[in-house]
Design brief:
Layout lengths: L34 H4 L3 H13 L3 E2 L5 E2 L14 E2 L9 E2 L16 E2 H16 L4 E5 L4 H15 L1 H4 L16 E6 L14 H9 L5 E5 L4 H4 L4 E7 L2 H10 L3 H4 L6
Parallel strand pairs: 2-3
Antiparallel strand pairs: 1-2, 4-5, 6-7, 7-9, 8-9
């Protein structure tokens, strides 16, 4: 079982939270790495990275935690793990994919690595005859505040908290999440999307492009949210396949949930 919280930032060009290339300053060419070091398992690496990133988390007075490494592409954001209110990814870009609307809006954006991966995913889906359309990506803290407050006015806080994140706790603020839909759904976000050809294709193939279905059915008590077959979260291909094959939430996979 993976017990890591997040991976070390690996920098791609144009990325603040994607991948921060970490150059190793200490290179001892006279002492070759042992076979045991060379064969270090993925789980051991995750454990080391987890300790480093966990040490950066900040405990808040309300009992929640402020994510210490919001730039990490595997940052776990949920009701207990918040992003800084002023956090804005510095590598936001608009992916070259179909949207259900034409004009530029904040929500068209994703972080650079996620945007490129989404382009590959949708291109592959089109090759397989699928019609996947992007709906909502990055949301600022202020925009999430507007959405959450409006939902509370309409549905009340208790119901709203099952499907809408309080400001600072939304994955959309990371710039690594994109809601998608299809013409068959009339571009709505509804659980029935999971039964469409596009929804089934995503459930089977999204991990091949570094994405997971973040809020899966049966994990509501762990994630805190109802089933959302349309909500894609980019974590990179290093982890997406493992998360998918183990049928785990990010909370379980990175050790934030104990049974």
């Amino acid at each position: 079982m993976k017990k890591a919280l997040a991976i070390t930032m690996i920098s791609l060009s144009l990325t603040a939270c994607s991948i921060n290339n970490q150059t190793t300053e200490q290179k001892d060419e006279t002492v070759p790495a042992s076979a045991e070091q060379k064969q270090q398992t993925s789980e051991q690496k995750q454990s080391q990275e987890t300790k480093q990133e966990q040490s950066e988390d900040i405990a808040l007075e309300d009992g929640t935690v402020q994510v210490g490494e919001p730039e990490s592409i595997t940052a776990v954001v949920n009701k207990e793990r918040k992003l800084p209110g002023d956090y804005v990814p510095n590598d936001l870009t608009v992916p070259d994919v179909p949207f259900y609307f034409e004009e530029f809006q904040e929500k068209k954006q994703l972080r650079e690595p996620a945007a490129r991966a989404l382009e590959d995913l949708i291109a592959a889906a089109e090759t397989d005859g699928m019609n996947i359309v992007a709906a909502s990506g990055y949301r600022s803290y202020d925009r999430q505040t507007e959405i959450y407050d409006r939902n509370v006015e309409i549905y009340g806080k208790e119901e709203t908290d099952t499907f809408s994140a309080e400001p600072g706790t939304s994955e959309h603020q990371t710039g690594l999440a994109m809601d998608v839909t299809s013409a068959q759904m009339a571009f709505k976000l509804d659980q029935s999307f999971g039964e469409t050809p596009e929804g089934k294709w995503l459930a089977e193939h999204a991990h091949e492009y570094g994405f997971i279905i973040r809020y899966t059915e049966g994990k509501e008590d762990i994630t805190g949210y109802t089933y959302e077959p349309w909500h894609l979260r980019y974590v990179g291909t290093e982890y997406s396949t493992e998360v998918h094959e183990e049928s785990k939430s990010l909370e379980e996979f990175f050790g934030f949930y104990k049974e």
